[in-house]
Amino acid sequence: MHIVLVNIRVKVERIEDFVAASAENARNSRKEAGIVRFDLIQQKDDPANFVLLEVYRTPGDQALHRETAHYLTWRDAVDSMMDGPRKGLTYRSLNTPDEAWGYGMEI
Hints:
- The chain is α+β, with helices and mostly antiparallel strands.
- It has helices at about 15-30, 60-65, 70-80, and strands at about 1-10, 35-40, 50-55, 85-90.
- The chain has one domain (about 1-95): Alpha-Beta Plaits (2-Layer Sandwich), CATH 3.30.70.
- The radius of gyration is 14 Å and the shape is globular.
């Protein structure tokens, strides 16, 4: 698995717009063959702080995702909503077998 956590800080007055655009991107992203999991997470005590949890089968699947129409639409739409650049970090799972991420499961 290729796991990416993207940290995003959103302008307070744009939170609702960001959530709407990101939810649409997440719905479409989950339809991609190379994506195992794609979640939008909002910090409870700081609602302007978000994380995208993206789990891909391979790093190449992330590259393919970045070429999709829904990603490009999301990227351009949320650019002015962000309060600073987004930061993505990649991870690997040390104790979760690949099948536990939902391989082949509808999520």
